[in-house]
# Entry
Amino acid sequence: MTRLILVLGDQLSRDVACLRAAQDGDVVVMAEVMDEAGYVRHHPKKIAFLFAAMRKFAAELQDAGFRVAYTRLDDAGNSQKIGGELLRRAAQFEADEVIATEPGEWRLIDMLTYLPIKVRQLPDDRFLASHADFEAWAKDRKELRMEWFYREMRRKTGLLMDGDQPAGGQWNYDHDNRKPAQADMLRQQPPSFDPDAVTQEVLDLVEARFGDNFGDLRPFGYATDRDGALKALHHFIRHSLDMFGPYQDAMLQDDPLLHHSVLSPYLNAGLLLPREVCEAAASAYADGKVRLNSAEGFIRQIIGWREYMRGIYFLEGPDYTSRNALNHQRKLPWLYWGGATKMACMAAAIGQTRRLAYAHHIQRLMVTGNFALLAGIDPAEVHEWYLSVYIDAYEWVEAPNTIGMSQFADGGIVGSKPYVSSGNYINKMSDYCRGCDYSVSARTGEKACPFNLLYWDFMIRHRDRLEANPRISRIYGNWDRMDEDKRRTIRAEAADFLRRMSEGERV
Ligand code: FAD
Ligand code: DLZ
Ligand code: SF4
# Structure
C-alpha cells in the first residue's frame, strides 16, 4: 500500500524526519488550508511567506523525484483542514498510513493522534534537544532556569567550547552587552528579496483572501526559499553579528531591526536549521571575525532560549496557553491593532509590527509585553495577539515567550520574576521618549508616562505575591517611603488611565 508523507508549512526542510523516512512510491502531502491560515488572524505577510515557501519547497521536492500532492487554498475539493486533506489523499492514492513529523502545536498533534487512519508521528529532530532530553534535565529541579539548560546544550553541541570549558572561560558574556544605540546611517540592513512570479501570485491570493487582517502585505521582501534564507544568514554573519551582542537590547525609532538577524522566520519554517546557523556564528568567532560576546550571545538565543522554550511548551502540556496566574482580565485595547496612541514607544513597536510582521525581542518583551502586563490584560488575549502578528509565530515558541516570559501567567516557570519596568528602562535603551507626548520623568499629572503610573499600580496590586520574592522585595521600600498623597495620586491616575484606555479613548 502507498504511504502518505505529511509536510506541514513549518517543516520545509529536506532533512525533516518524515522525508528521511520516505520510500519509493510514497506520496508527499502538502496543503494550504483555511484551518491553519485562520486559527488566528495571521499577519498577511506571515501567510504569504509560508504559502510561497510551501509552493517552492513542493516544486523542489518534485524536481528531486518525490511524488507530491499539493493542495492550493482555492483548489476545488480542498477540505480546508490538514486532516481532511490527508483523508482525501488517502482515498485518492489508496494509502493506508501517514508518516508525519510531530507538529509544533498540541492542536495538530491531537488531530493526527485521532485521525481515522494509521499515523506515525516521528520526533522533530531538527531541534537539538529531544523531549526526553528536556524532561531528563527538568526532572527533580526546583527551578527550570534557562542558564543551566544552556550550559548543558553548550556541552552537548560542543559550540564555543575549549574541551570541557566554555571559550574565553565564561559561559555568558551579557555584562558586555545591553548598550543603547545611536542612529547610524551605515548600519547594514538584512537583504530584501524582490518577489518572483510564485511569490507575486501568492501575494495576490493573500490580498484577496486575507487583506482585512491586521498588517501590511506589501512591500514584501522576505526570502521564500532556502537559497534566500542562506543569503540572509551569511549577510547577517558578515555584516551584523559582530555588533549583535552589545546592541541587542537597544531600540531606535528609525531603525526597526538594528543588528538583529531576522532569521526567526526561516529557522521556524525550516528553511534554516539551528545547528548550521550556530555553526556559522561559531566559525566567524573562530576566524577572528566577530567578538566572543556577540557570538556567545547569539548562539545562546538559539541553543539556549529557543530550545528551552520548546522544552517548556511540551513539558507543561496543552493547558499552558490558558494559564493566568495573576488573574488578569482586561481586554486587549484597540491600540494593539493599530488604534492611535500617544505613547511613542507603543506606536513604534506596533507600527513596525504592522509594516514588517517583525519586532525584535526587547520591543516584544519590554514595550508591548511590559505594557500588557502592567495594564493587567488577559494573557489569553495577549497570546492570541503575538501568535497573530509576527511572521515567526508558532505556538511552541510564542506561547512560552508570551504566557511565561512576558506575562508571568505561568506563575514563574520561565522567569523568576515578572519582566516589568517603568518608563526609565525604555528611556535608557531607546530614543522613543524624546518624541513622546508623555514625559518619562513625570510620575504623576497629565504628562506622566503611563509606564510610570502603571508600574506602581501593578506592583501594589500584586504585592502579596511579589513581596516574598527576594529579587523584588526591596522595591516596596521605595513605595513605602513615598509621600501618602503621592501614592494615592499614582493609584488614582493609573485607574483613570486604564478606564480611559478601555473605553477606547486615545491614550
Ligand atoms: P535575534 O535577536 O537575531 O536572535 C537570533 C535567534 O535566536 C532568533 O532568530 C530566534 O530563533 C532565537 N531567539 C532569540 N530569543 C528567543 C526567545 N526568547 N525564544 C525563542 N527563540 C529565541 N520568537 C519566535 O521565534 N517566535 C515567536 O512567536 C516569538 N514570540 C515572542 C513573544 C514574546 C512576547 C517575546 C518576548 C518573544 C518572542 N519571541 C518569539 C522571541 C524573540 O523575540 C524572537 O525570536 C526574535 O525577536 C526573532 O528575531 P530575530 O530572528 O531577529 O532574533
Ligand atoms: C501558520 C500556517 C499557515 C498560515 N498556513 C498553513 C497551511 O496552510 N498549511 C500548513 O501545512 N501549515 C500552515 N501553517 C503552519 C501550521 O499552522 C503549523 O504547522 C502548526 O501551527 C504547527 O506548528
Ligand atoms: Fe513610552 Fe513613556 Fe517613553 Fe512615552 S515617555 S515613549 S510612553 S516610555
